[in-house]
Fold these 2 entries.
Entry 1:
Amino acid sequence: MPKTIILNDYTTVTGSVFCDVKDIRENFKSQSEQLIKAFDLAKERLGVKSNVKLHFRNIRQKKGSTCYGSFYNATKTVEIDCKNFDLKSKVNTIVHELAHASQYESKRLSQKGKTYKFEGETFAQPKGHDEYANLPWEVEAREVAKKHTNAIMKAIA
């Protein structure tokens, strides 16, 4: 288990990002203040009230998949992959994952095992990336990110 570094009351980063890999470390350190500010602004813009945490790490991915982040409702944690060096992509991912936090917080989205409920409709675990990408809460999260990312980028510049 990699070492975890605490950056503030709600932000952590794994040692592999913060210490070990030179390119990732330097990129993260140059962006960390902007990313934390983007997280705070996105929470405010989306009206997320719960104590959501922010965690930066290197996310291992299955071959052929692209996962820049995740939201875990059980722990109220947004995880962001730091192997992506582009600041705007990371900010977009933060907004996208906080959109999921908002969906869970408002009880529009819930999960029980491998079954999801969104706005009263039940969905099974998706079988592939295309099915996953077309789930209504994923479509909505992409729309929310598209709506807010540029304004947040301007505010953190």
Entry 2:
Amino acid sequence: MQRIDLTPQTGTDIYLSCIGLLFGAVIGMKLADIDQRIPDWLLYHRAILTHGLIVPALLGWGVWRAKHQTIRGFTIGFCMTNAVHLSFDLFPRAWWGYALIHIFSWSLPPLLSWFWIAISIVFCVYLARFFVRTFWDLLVSGFGILIGFGMSAHEGLLLPLLAFMIAGILAFLFPLKRGEEK
């Protein structure tokens, strides 16, 4: 049986993973709002592509295909800080207009928009948990979470922090079967 293990085996593997984690954390915090810089005819703010689980799912698939430590680390960092960002987006001033999730120019109803973001937060935390293998992964992820909450704290901290914690609890309720052997 061929062993499929993404655990870093050398110091270089850990270094590559941490570099990926840092870059992933920075991009994960900012990617969701990149649609604000793109014309509405191309991508609305809070597009389903940038505010959800599609990009994290593609990253997770990429990790399994490439089996590279930098991509694994990037995915962990991206998912954790993206979950932080989405935790803040779960509580807009009102659920209308640009606060809704958009599929091209069509917007989801408020309850469905809220549900999409909530499920995406849980998925991001679960995916990050799935790929965490070392103490350094945990340490850098935790640092990314703190930085993410610190950067967005001006928007109000209590509800997003509560949402993130609930998502974390839910993500840890799902079984973790990594399929280490093939």
